[in-house]
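Honest question from a wet-lab person: if I give you the sequences of every part of a complex, can you actually get the arrangement of the whole thing, not just the pieces? Trying it with mine:
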Amino acid sequence: MIKVNTKESNWSEGMTVQDLLDEKQFVFKHIIVRVNGVYVPPEMHAAFQINDGDNVMVVHLMAGG
Amino acid sequence: MEARRYLKNYAAISVTEQSQLAKKRILIVGCGGLGGYLLEYLGRLGVGYITIVDGDVFDETNLNRQLLSSQMNLGKPKVLAAKHRMLAINPLVHLETVQENLTEENAASLVKDHDIVLDALDNIPARLLLQRTCKEVGLPLVHGALAGWYGQVCVIQPGEDLLDLIYGNYDIEQGKELETGSLSFTAGLVASIQASEAVKLLLGKPTLNRELLAVDILQSQFDCIKF
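Yes, you can. This is the full assembly:
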């Protein structure tokens, strides 16, 4: 299991950040991802592997008012 | 007159708390989608002293969501509409309007002499400037932002830098692409949550604490992300 935005979520061997974003339908154009507090830039989403027990934070980057 | 005006508040806010709110001073930075609703909610509620800051004028693209905009005031200052609106809905509120945008030069003088600050801005550099200024002056900041169906709110206590965690990897070039649209109900929703957090701060009640309330109304989800 991993945590995604503080909620428990299923983990599978080889899961990448992009897999997780696809599974959770995070389709917003601008997204900030941190794994265990470390920022993962968009160009790394497809390659960055998530490990069992990781804490993932996904935030939409928005600024409108 | 005053007692009747606030009669429907009293099931949720005590008479004593209502009196406390009448003495409080808040600053709303931005008078657009969020700022217009914040002024409406907090002015109707009875916060005594409100300053609202915005150097902009209304244009047609504001009409889809900005409460204070109308066919009649296109091209007119947003803060002028704020003044007219508050006089119409609650003249007990002491409203100060400042027709300026937030800058490095005016930020500290705008922020001082308030109890709390509400971030109703529309761009990241200004939001980070506001956070930095609130930190220097030692005031809490209630942040709200939106994009399309998404919104977020957090309370930044004096000395904290939560926006750095959210926007820390932002770069100016990416910021140009961030104009992802704003919907009327998202602006109203985010402003509602900001207003409620502001009132809790003013009354010494627990608020969001080192967490971001992230709202995705397309999927009907509210997430509280702990930092």
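Two things worth pointing out. The radius of gyration of chain A is 11 Å. The domain at 2-60 of chain A is CATH 3.10.20.30 (Ubiquitin-like (UB roll)).
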